[in-house]
Amino acid sequence: MLKKRITISLGVLLSCLLTIPAFSQGQGITLNKIIAKVDNYYVLKSDLERTYQDYVAQNQTPPAKCQLLESLVIQKMMLAKSEIDSVFVDDKLVDNQLDSRMSYMIQQFGSEKNIVEAYGKSLEMLKSELRQQVKEQMTIQKMQSTITEKIKVTPNDVRKFFNAIPKDSLPYMPAEVEVGHIVRFAKITKEQKDELRKRLLDLKERVQKGEDFAKLAKEFSEDVGSAQNGGDLGYAKRGAMVAPFEGAALKLKPGEMSDIVETEFGLHLIQLVETRGAEYHARHILLRPDYNRLDLTDPTSFLDSLRTLIVADSLTFAKAAKLHSEDKGTSDAGGLIRDPESGSSMMPMDGSMDYSLFMMLDSMKVGSVTVPMPYRTEDGKSAMRILYFKNKVPPHTADFKTDFEKLQNIVMANKKNRAIDDWFRKSVGDVYITVDPEYNSCRIFGTSQESAASSGGN
User: Fold this and answer.
1) How much is the pLDDT for 110?
2) Is pLDDT above 80 for 389?
3) Domains of the chain: which residue ranges?
4) Distance in angstroms (rounded) separating the CA atoms of residues 397 and 410
5) Which of 41, 193, 221, 226 could hold 217 in an S-S bridge, CB 3.0 to 4.6 Å?
6) CATH architecture, domain defined by 175-187+293-394
7) pTM for this model (two decimals)
8) CATH architecture of structural domain 2-153+406-455
9) Topology agreement, domain 175-187+293-394 and domain 190-290
10) What's the CATH class of domain 190-290?
11) What is the pLDDT of residues 309-351, one digit of tens each?
């Protein structure tokens, strides 16, 4: 069935989009044979093999290669249709996502030098390759959003779905927990701050003596996203940058440099390039503290005092998190940690959970708050945090009231799959699809390779 096959492929497609795009490493096998074409977009055999190996590397059972190929063809079809339908992604959004991915890669590899050695390519070349992949991924995601943006789910939809499930076939739900945390970051020591200030002042003096700011930024700035462009941040609207940075930049005249500016990202030396109406163009050199040498004394003491108030019922955990947690992603929600896939505050207590968190909760009682504990954020920052075990739902057979949010997500996913199914049926004739004869047995879109190829362009 076409509908069933496309639904499976969408699951594969989404899993591919959530991973960081891979580069071809110097020692890898090069398989550049074109195995499918959708208008001017190509699927290479290396794309298929890499996608398959990504599942293996993550200890997941890979889908059949025909399903993987179909998902890759679907991606290319969305790209081709985005051009026809004028669905584009803003370049600034692409650049922001690119900077984020590059920063994550540097954290994973330990340094820029390690990345260059691993792939045998310069950072400029890698970034260029990654940018195209990021842009394509964001375009595909925007196409999916465009197709499904008007879909709504009502409580009645959820009830009908639940009532249609035979009572003896209701799924068994794993244990779930609701956990909050309050985070306080380690503070840079006076010694470290003085060291970074001295280095930036030395760089400022070198510029004042005639050296090029951009060249020094490229060599010394630890903001990877802008360093490759000489520290250039491009034009920014007022309010786009953090307040200390923007305040310092707007006090400058074109060509002038700021004093040392401290923000949550580190210490900056800023040079204003020019202003244009409500926008300004600046570049900077950023130096960050060594997160392994930061002082955890103050955050530990602060959280310990905060915990005392919470345990004594003098302050609720949610209010304490909103007022004092430095984790911006959770503070507004009263410190509640959300499941990265579902977005729900209820998280399955199983193998998908961080192991250290799982072990901690396994020994805690609902309602309890831990003492301050060391914590390392996803971007590598050192911190301390206290955990609050708010709620636990034991394993159970699916229930309409208890599992309403999950059931709602399933109904929404089903509706989106049907919408995209309809979109494929209507759009397949708008593009020209060919698949290499080697994959004749793969019935792309539920058809043989020959009929799939002939359907395009008619």
Assistant:
1) 65
2) yes
3) 2-153+406-455, 175-187+293-394, 190-290
4) 16
5) 221
6) Roll (3.10)
7) 0.54
8) Orthogonal Bundle (1.10)
9) yes
10) alpha beta
11) 999 999 999 999 999 999 988 999 999 998 876 778 888 887 6
Chain mean pLDDT for the chain: 83
Note whether 259 and 271 are within 8 A (CB): no
With helix as H, strand as E and coil as C, how does the chain read? CHHHHHHHHHHHHHHHHCCCCCCCCCCCCCCCCEEEEECCEEEEHHHHHHHHHHHHHCCCCCCCHHHHHHHHHHHHHHHHHHHHCCCCCCHHHHHHHHHHHHHHHHHHHCCHHHHHHHHCCCHHHHHHHHHHHHHHHHHHHHHHHHHHCCCCCCHHHHHHHHHCCCHHHCCEECCEEEEEEEEEECECCHHHHHHHHHHHHHHHHHHHCCCCHHHHHHHHCCCHHHHCCCCEEEEEECCCCCHHHHHHHHCCCCCCECCCEEECCEEEEEEEEEEECCEEEEEEEEECCCHHHCECHHHHHHHHHHHHHHHCCCCCHHHHHHHHCCCHHHHCCCCECCCCCCCCCEEECCCCCCHHHHHHHHCCCCCCECCCEEEECCCCCEEEEEEEEEEEECCEECCCCCCHHHHHHHHHHHHHHHHHHHHHHHHHHHCCEEECHHHCCCCHHHCCHHHHHHHCCC
- Token readout for 324 is 């004092």
Give the position of tokens 């955890």.
Answer: 296
